[in-house]
């Protein structure tokens, strides 16, 4: 058995024409939802704030104190609003090992109970965050004199979006007859 590789000689023109064969497709932005774009905007505000902090501290040797606080609060917004994206795409951590060994009816029942618990959890979290905003929302930030309520409203928005997306996912699971827990391969393309 020979291990010698055989390569066909091709010209530079042939190489150049390989790039012309396939027309690049345009960007498909249909898979993104409003929370994705909002999280992206907040992320870039955070990134610019961190860059400004780095630049003023290490280049100008006189850092702006407010950039660190803004970056921290932006990170909170990215986490909670980005979590709505994870709920919509069913990307949060989940254990589906038990579902491999359960018959269809108990697996379907357990998956429905999990959907209901998730909806109840996010609903309760909305209530708690709202109560928290009522208590502490008028406090001022440390370096800039905005109300901290702005940050907590971003958290509230994240939980409202997660609540709405969890209802949407539950309804889709009920209509479809299975969830990602029961048949993960149907969602990641590995199911034949």
UniProtKB/TrEMBL annotation:
Residues 46-176 form the Tripartite ATP-independent periplasmic transporters DctQ component domain. It is found in: Cell inner membrane. One of its GO terms (molecular function) is transmembrane transporter activity. The keyword DNA-binding does not apply. It comes from the Bacteria. Pfam families: DctQ. Its main location: membrane. The keyword Aminoacyl-tRNA synthetase does not apply. PANTHER family: 2,3-DIKETO-L-GULONATE TRAP TRANSPORTER SMALL PERMEASE PROTEIN YIAM, TRAP TRANSPORTER SMALL PERMEASE PROTEIN. Belongs to the TRAP transporter small permease family. This is TRAP transporter small permease protein. It comes from Bradyrhizobium archetypum.
């Amino acid at each position: 058995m020979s291990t010698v590789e055989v390569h066909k000689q091709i010209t530079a023109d042939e190489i150049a024409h390989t790039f012309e064969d396939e027309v690049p497709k345009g960007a498909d932005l249909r898979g993104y939802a409003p929370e994705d774009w909002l999280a992206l905007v907040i992320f870039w505000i955070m990134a610019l704030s961190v860059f400004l902090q780095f630049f003023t501290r290490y280049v100008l040797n006189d850092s702006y104190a407010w950039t660190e606080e803004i970056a921290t609060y932006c990170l909170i917004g990215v986490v909670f609003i980005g979590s709505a994206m994870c709920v919509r795409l069913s990307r949060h951590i989940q254990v589906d090992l038990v579902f491999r060994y359960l018959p269809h009816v108990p697996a379907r029942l357990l998956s429905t109970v999990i959907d209901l618990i998730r909806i109840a959890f996010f609903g309760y979290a909305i209530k708690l965050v709202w109560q928290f905003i009522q208590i502490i929302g008028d406090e001022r930030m440390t370096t800039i004199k905005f109300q901290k309520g702005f940050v907590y409203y971003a958290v509230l928005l994240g939980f409202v979006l997660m609540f709405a997306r969890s209802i949407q996912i539950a309804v889709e699971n009920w209509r479809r007859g299975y969830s990602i827990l029961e048949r993960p391969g149907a969602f990641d393309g590995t199911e034949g």
